[in-house]
Specification:
heterotrimer, A mainly alpha (314), B alpha+beta (559), C mainly alpha (308), A: mainly alpha, MetI-like fold, 14 helices, C: mainly alpha, 2 domains, 12 helices
């Protein structure tokens, strides 16, 4: 028992001093984790494609090879011609559309998760740390947001706001971030609160308080890092969620509109072809899955790297 | 945790739309070729037909029914005065005959002898007086009340302001409504103006006989006037029909039981067919190529026309709008579209290019190919039109609206690219959920917008007067040509179809010359029918294949 | 604790009040109403729309409509359905709710039975083959849209091998595919959270202490680790349970399950106001209760957690 405070000890000054090397150590540990490195490389690749996709794509994302579709009697399959991943039923190159779609999907995935962290973590942490009335109010508020009828809200947004500055900002994507992000943070808030409720009763918190560490530092330096595992899971699982949710929005007139693509929209449009032209749903879904797996490995690796105790453990 | 209750539904609306039947993507219907070989049923085979309604019928009250699921069931369990034969000619239903007066304004129906409801109550002319009045009674607010507009007093009832009108006022108007029953078997309709197509109104499921106190909410107590009766209605699960023992108005049903599933998703419906759990299934557009390539399933395909049209309309309501002020511009947008290729790619080759309003399979259907695909002529016309209007191509800023619930994205993307290539302009697609879309059409129409129309009854009037005349509520274009309306009125007075058709076609040609819409595709069905289902008669009017004559189906021996 | 529970139950009332007001306002502000179109896209005559709105009291001022709705709710009347004209919202909810709950409970049980062991194994064999396998399964479960999973299950089990029927809910055989399809996502979710919190716990010292005391690995796992790893898992299980027992639009639609889950989306598309309100309220109650259950469970799992 005694050595527990040792591990998580940390008078303020010591913590400051340690943090620089802690991050350096963590980074070195991360680099030793092959899967995490692989995940990170893929994430970089996705970001690269998101930025430069339309320059390096083999075709224009909206160019229609109608003759090929008529000749093939339907969407052109993969591997058979100049279109490596095949085409959709308008003869548009699927690979080029996936590359074009990376832009919207990556932006949505990352910004939404940022919004989730930005709102969910402080709300959850404040509720747990201060408890009492604030906890009650914040948590009843999350109950309300859980039950919030987002589909109605979004339909309303799609018509009421589309002509306003807010509605048009970032090609209409801002609305998408807000719509998904504002309702998706509740899970994170409850997760953080649940863990902190337990952690704040541990001895090291009392110890830290006794030596005058500020509340803010206790929460951000000690409690949140100890709760990071499930938080990282929530973020990584939220990524495909946001990508697919964007398709629902595109569907209601927000987000990616024809002829632009997004992964969610490609998966969505491809679903009905599942049995006849599976490549139309398989490849976009694969892109989502690879993104998820890359972020997962990177996230897992980060967590392991930030945890000195697991060092060397296989 | 990201998936919220409503947002997380992903495909959600996509499936909803499947409920708003689009030809080809949901169980849809058409003509009889194949699949109806002469009956050779083994008498010991269970005569059970298993079909899919595609969802829970919103109501089985004939007055209120407007959805394909409801109509599908009502076709079997109710019968109007007149009905159809397999060629969609009007034939006697519960009426034995009818007579139209010299001036074309009085129709006298004589009911068949001894006809009864499923509970044994006789069906009398009073029951039609009751149901017809109920259809137009403002307090019922029936969606199809407008089909009674031609009857004496009909316009008055449709125009009643229920806020100020008292029950007495409405009763008085209903008393003056031109339907009467001089005796038990004679039903007389007085028309305010001659309407030669009116006998088609008497084929509508909304005009079947009813008595006061009928309840329609559950199978228990449901009184049927058709060849089949409702024996089971398990909500959201299934409906079961069995022959009505008191049915004498037509041939006795050969089928002994009809089981109607409610599979909402078209892909799931097709899977149920392949699993051998239902006997008839529509094929979603996206799966047509797979079925065509399947040696076994391709033999079970039933194809044919459907009375429906898929089109894009131009906004002619905006007095400043470019399309309002330039016929040439509308024509240019027509000429720039390759309909053949559009159908080949976005409708899996199903359907015929539309160059008119009235679809094939309807009497008097005629093709007016005024705007053959010609991108060069289109570009010339486009430039000329813009020069006349004094607008630069870059300033057009056109919005193309569509509802996002039924696979219209690829059609819009196709058109967008056709216009980009022909004219060098980018139109902006705006997809909205159906309700929001409808609101925009009314309040602030898009420059170009997608719409469709399907037949309520197989007569050109339903595709012209009801769709494109100046006063039609479904004329979202705001197109109004007095000459066209005059021709339509003339056609309505012409006593025979032979005399009406040339007038309707003259009107149609005039409409096409004005190009208020881009007609794209006439409907078509692609349905799978199990080989042991015999005597299934599909018509272009069916929204579910064979629904008009389910009772005459028989089942041959199998497995 | 009892006082806490009582207070929390009372708190559900204001939560429901806010949810209902928000929903009502959003619903009525959303363009188009229940009667503006009918059939396959026919536009209703303005007269007909006005008559129906009057008939159902939709022409009254909104606050009056809301108060009338609340009044009826208090006597257990959820009002009429505008889409299913001969039925009330009570009929619709009453018909489908137990099917939906039944399916949801089965899917929840399956998710927990599969998901937690999957996560525990992954954590115990951290960065080993079982861990990667479990990760792989989870990624599949999360990245596969439920429509795709459902159709694949349908095609293989109902069409190809014909082990299970493709639609309906009549017999236990009908329950299998929808349950698996509905559990696909939560299994993956639960496995990931379980794994993460197990790993979180492995670095806590008392586990090592237990190890050093020579306790057998299995008892270390069961007594100390799982208990402490439970908090995040319990946190997400609450909402997962609430989501599952209130049904899924996609699963119910594809497998033709006669539940109420489909109405969460259908009612909005149809602007069937009474059904929308009922669905939102139902979900709000469920989520509020489940979050209460979660909070109470915290105190049992970790006795240090106390609510003032």
């Amino acid at each position: 028992m005694a050595n527990r405070t040792g591990a998580l000890e940390a008078p303020a000054a010591a913590a400051e001093r340690r943090s620089a090397s802690l991050w350096g150590d963590a980074f070195r540990r991360l680099l030793r984790n092959r899967l995490a490195v692989l995940g990170g490389l893929f994430v970089l690749l996705f970001i690269f494609v998101a930025i430069f996709g339309s320059f390096i794509a083999p075709y224009d994302y909206r160019e229609q090879d109608l003759a090929a579709v008529v000749a093939a009697g339907g969407p052109v399959g993969p591997w058979v011609g100049p279109h490596i991943l095949g085409t959709d039923n308008l003869g548009r190159d699927l690979l080029s559309r996936i590359m074009d779609g990376a832009r919207i999907s990556m932006i949505v995935a990352l910004v939404v998760q940022a919004v989730v962290l930005f709102i969910g973590v402080p709300v959850g942490a404040a509720a747990a740390w201060f408890g009492g009335r604030l906890d009650t109010l914040l948590m009843r508020f999350t109950d309300i947001v859980y039950a919030f009828p987002d589909l109605l809200f979004i339909i309303l947004l799609s018509t009421a706001l589309r002509e306003t500055v807010f509605g048009r900002a970032l090609d209409g994507l801002l609305v998408v971030f807000v719509a998904i992000g504002l309702t998706a943070w509740v899970g994170m808030a409850r997760l953080v609160r649940g863990q902190l409720l337990s952690l704040k009763e541990t001895e090291f918190v009392e110890a830290a308080r006794a030596i005058g560490v500020s509340d803010f530092k206790i929460v951000t330096r000690h409690l949140l890092p100890n709760a990071s595992g499930p938080m990282i899971v929530a973020v990584t699982l939220g990524i495909p969620g946001a990508i697919l949710a964007e398709a629902t929005l595109a569907f209601i007139g927000l987000g990616a509109q024809e002829p632009r693509a997004s992964w969610g929209k490609l998966v969505f449009d491809g679903q009905a072809f599942l049995r006849s032209e599976p490549h139309l749903v398989l490849f976009p879904a694969l892109a989502v899955a690879i993104a998820l797996i890359s972020f997962t490995f990177l996230g897992d690796g980060l967590r392991d790297a930030l945890d000195p105790k697991l060092k060397g453990k296989q | 945790m990201w998936f919220k209750k409503f947002l997380g539904v992903f495909v959600a609306l996509g499936l909803v739309l499947a409920a708003c039947s689009t030809p080809g993507t949901s169980p849809s219907s058409e003509a009889s070729d194949g699949a109806s070989q002469p009956a050779s049923e083994a008498p010991d085979v269970e005569q059970v037909l298993r079909v899919d309604l595609g969802g829970e019928p919103p109501t089985l009250d004939p007055t209120q029914a407007t959805d394909s699921q409801s109509i599908n069931v009502l076709r079997s369990i109710t019968r109007p005065l007149a009905y159809y034969d397999e060629n969609l000619e009007v034939v006697p239903g519960l009426a034995e005959s009818w007579e139209i007066s010299e001036d074309g304004q009085t129709i006298t129906f004589t009911l068949k002898d001894g006809i009864q409801y499923s509970d044994g109550t006789p069906i009398t002319a009073d029951d039609f007086v009751f149901s017809w009045k109920r259809l137009i009674d403002p307090r019922e607010a029936a969606g199809y009340s407008y089909i009674m507009a031609d009857v004496v007093g009909g316009e008055d009832l449709l125009g009643v302001d229920t806020e100020t009108a008292t029950d007495e006022d409405i009763e008085a108007l209903l008393d003056a409504f031109g339907v009467s029953a001089p005796d038990e078997s004679t039903f007389v309709v007085e028309l305010a103006r001659p309407a030669a197509y009116f006998v088609y109104i008497a084929t509508s499921w909304t005009t079947v006989p009813q008595q006061e106190g009928f309840s329609f909410a559950e199978a228990d107590g449901y009184v049927s006037s058709g060849p089949m009766k409702l024996v089971e209605w398990e909500h959201n699960a299934q409906i079961v029909l069995e022959p009505n023992e008191n049915w004498t108005a037509g041939p006795a049903p050969t089928i002994e039981r009809i089981e109607m599933a409610m599979i909402q998703d078209p892909a799931a419906s097709l899977a149920a067919y392949e699993a051998g759990e239902i006997d008839i299934a529509g094929v979603p557009t996206q799966e047509i190529s797979r079925i065509q390539g399947d040696p076994e399933l391709s033999d079970q395909v039933l194809q044919g026309d459907v009375l429906s049209i898929y089109y894009f309309g131009f906004d002619l309501k905006d007095p400043e709008g470019p399309f309002t002020n330039s016929v040439l511009l509308r024509q240019a947008f027509n000429e720039a579209v390759d309909k053949e290729t559009m159908i080949a790619t976005t409708f899996a080759g199903l359907g015929t290019p539309a160059n008119s309003l009235v679809p094939p399979g309807m009497p008097g259907a005629q093709d007016f190919e005024l705007y053959p695909y010609d991108p060069e002529k289109a570009k010339a016309d486009f430039d000329q039109a813009l020069a006349d209007l004094g607008i630069a191509a870059g300033d057009l800023g056109l919005e193309v609206g569509f509802n996002t619930d039924a696979n219209h994205e690829d059609k819009v993307a196709f058109l967008q690219e056709q216009w980009r290539q022909a004219f060098g302009i980018d139109v902006t697609p705006v997809g909205l959920e159906w309700g929001a879309y409808l609101e925009r059409l009314e309040s602030d129409p898009f420059d170009i917008f997608r719409l469709g129309w399907g037949a309520d009854y197989p007569h050109p009037n339903n595709f012209l007067t009801d769709l494109i005349s100046c006063s039609s509520g479904n004329n979202n274009m705001g197109y109004c040509n007095e000459e066209v309306d005059a021709l339509l009125q003339e056609a309505a007075v012409a006593p025979t179809l032979e005399e009406q058709v040339p007038l309707y076609n003259q009107a149609q040609e005039m409409v096409m010359a004005d190009a208020p819409i881009i007609p794209l595709r006439m409907g078509s069905r692609f349905t799978l029918v199990k080989p042991w289902i015999q005597n299934l008669v599909a018509t272009a009017q069916d929204s579910n294949t064979g629904e008009l004559f389910y009772d005459q189906v028989s089942v041959a021996a199998h497995e | 604790m009892l006082g806490y529970i009582v207070r929390r139950v009372l708190w559900i009332v204001p939560v429901l009040f806010f949810v209902s007001v928000i929903t009502f306002v959003l619903m009525r502000a959303t363009p188009s109403g229940p009667f503006d179109s009918f059939g396959a896209g026919r536009i209703a005559a303005p007269g007909v729309v006005a008559q129906l709105e009057r008939k159902y009291g939709l022409d009254k001022p909104p606050h009056e409509q809301y108060l009338r709705w609340v009044g009826n709710l208090l006597i257990g009347d959820l009002g009429p359905s505008y889409k299913y004209r001969d039925r009330t919202v009570n009929d619709i909810v009453g018909d489908g709710i137990w099917v939906t709950v039944h399916l949801g409970v089965m899917a929840f049980a399956l998710s927990v039975i599969v998901g937690i062991p999957l996560g525990v194994i992954a954590a115990l064999r951290h960065n080993g083959v079982p861990d990667y396998l479990a990760t792989f399964i989870s990624v599949l479960g999360i990245a596969t849209p439920s429509f795709v999973l459902s159709i694949l299950l349908l095609v293989f089990f109902a069409v190809t091998v014909r082990w299970f029927p493709s639609y309906g809910w009549q017999t236990p055989a009908h329950w299998v595919l929808p349950t698996i399809a509905l559990a696909g996502f939560p299994i993956a979710q639960i496995a990931r959270y379980t794994r993460a919190s197990m790993l979180e716990v492995t670095r806590k010292d008392y586990v090592r202490t237990a190890h050093s005391k020579g306790l057998k690995e299995r008892s270390v796992v069961s007594i100390h680790m799982i208990r402490n790893a439970l908090i995040p898992v319990v946190t997400i299980l609450g909402p997962i349970f609430a989501f599952l027992v209130t049904g899924s639009f996609i699963i119910e639609t594809i497998f033709s399950v006669p539940g109420i889950g489909r109405y969460f989306v259908l009612s909005i598309a149809q602007r069937d106001y009474g059904v929308i309100m009922a669905m939102v309220m139902l979900f709000a109650v469920t989520i509020a209760v489940m979050n209460l259950v979660v909070d109470v469970l915290y105190a049992y799992i970790d006795p240090r957690i106390r609510y003032s």
